[in-house]
Amino acid sequence: MKPIRIVVVDDSLTIRAMIETLLERDRRFEVVGIARDGDEVIDLVRLHRPDVVTLDVAMPGKDGMTILDEIMDMDPRPVIMLSSLMRDGAPITAEALDRGAAACFNKAMIAREAAKFIGLIKDVARGMVQVQPVMLAA
């Protein structure tokens, strides 16, 4: 089985490194691109056509919601929105899902809930997630 190809986008070096490390431990994943801002991600999506994009909501320059819109307009694919603001019932969660995100995850929980985060990526890549928020209380 070929690996799930992922582009990771976050302005935080720590978060990018944490996600990359989690994914590289598992042969079912291949990180094909890492971006620190919105300008970089569009080029990476065009070049690599990843199966999944993990996308930070709050970034300098173009924010994640703007990038989500661009991805959905350009070449729709599963996007998991990440933010420490993602919580059940939060307006930002509903907005992300309305704009086409496949799922949302509270990035403050990635390390603590790594197995759930990895499972979410697999499910999103396989089309097994019906547009819904996936997050945990912080």
The oligomeric state is: single chain
Mean pLDDT: 88
- Structural class of the secondary structure composition? alpha/beta
Overall geometry: globular
The order of strands across the largest sheet is 2-1-3-4-5-6
Taking the alpha carbons of the first and last residues, their distance comes to 35 Å
Strand and helix order? EHEHEHEHEHE
- Identify low-pLDDT runs: 131-138
Strand content: 15-25%
Note the main sheet.
6 strands, parallel
Helix content bin: 25-40%
- Strand tally is 6
Measured on Cα atoms, how large is the radius of gyration? Answer: 13 Å
Count of alpha and pi helical runs? 5
Structure described in brief:
The protein is α/β, with parallel strands linked by helices and 138 residues long.
List the defining traits of the structure above.
disordered C terminus; alpha/beta; 39% helix; 6-stranded parallel β-sheet; 138 residues
What do these coordinates show?
- With 138 residues, the chain is an alpha/beta fold.
- Helix content is 39%, strand content 21%.
- It is built from five helices and six strands, in the order βαβαβαβαβαβ.
- The chain has helices spanning 13-24, 38-48, 64-74, 91-98, 114-125; strands spanning 4-9, 29-35, 52-56, 79-83, 103-106, 132-133.
- β1, α1 and β2 form a beta-alpha-beta unit.
- α2 (38-48) packs parallel to α3.
- The N and C termini lie far apart (35 Å).
